[in-house]
Design goal:
Distance between the termini: 30 Å
Helix content: 40-55%
Number of strands: 0
Radius of gyration: 17 Å
Low-confidence stretches: none
Order of helices and strands: HHHHH
Mean pLDDT: 79
Strand content: under 5%
Length: 97
Amino acid sequence: MWISTRLRLHRFLVLWIPLTFACMNGNYAIQANYKPSDALAAEDAKSEAAQTYANIIAVSEKNKDAEWAKTLVEVLHSKEIQDFINKKYEGGVALIE
């Protein structure tokens, strides 16, 4: 519901408020069909903010050694998935180690 509200807000802004320039998080830009390659500027994946606010994989203590959790991490770090993410999101989503 929150994402839906954000996208409705985006549509409202585009339709009713003429903008010369705007800043938004990459995930919202991608959801609104903006291409990361069209951005005037983008934050470096190695920046302090990118490192601080990155999405993480978190599991409960009891599942930290579960096979499914290890497989999930392995798959997300695989070259095949990274190639897919880079192609799909044009560099707008970066793996943070």
